[in-house]
Amino acid sequence: MDADPGTNRNSAIGIGEASSLLGIPVDTLRYYERIGLIGRVARNPGGQRRFGPDDLARLRFVRRAQQMDFSLDEIGQLLQLRDSAGDVRSDVRALTETKLAAIESRIEALMRLRDELAGLVDACQRSEHGCPIIGRMDDSDSGHKAAGERS
């Protein structure tokens, strides 16, 4: 049985196989090459891309960084740091701390939104006339009124 193309050091695979192996659409692989997230991918004599083990490892890094909510620009920075020869821990840590703070801020905003929606659901269950949820959506100043409050 053949080894997994993603782990065999001597193999290179086409773009379709790389797409299937990594779960990244073909157009996205081309885009990553175009914007420089991955280097220029080797081509066969017919001009078709051939992704080697290093390309696949880099793409796995990109995919994992995206799963951690890093933007493509941030991933580009991380890849530059990854590729540099020096001690990059403080730079990587700073970038990651910034990302963590942004995620924590989003979580707090989502928790406030959850509380607001829960209040609207509760107000809807208690309401005998009209729909406080629709009323809240119609309210142009919704950020300043309590759930169920009349204007």
Overview of this protein structure:
There is one protein chain. The protein is mainly α and 151 residues long. It has 2 domains: 15-86, Orthogonal Bundle (Multidrug-efflux Transporter Regulator, Chain: A, Domain 2); 100-144, no CATH class. Helices cover 60% and strands 3% of the residues. The chain has helices at 15-22, 26-35, 53-67, 72-83, 89-126, 132-138; strands at residues 42-43, 49-50. It has a two-stranded antiparallel sheet with strand order 1-2. The protein is elongated, with a radius of gyration of 24 Å. It starts with 14 loop residues before the first helix and ends in a 13-residue tail after the last helix.
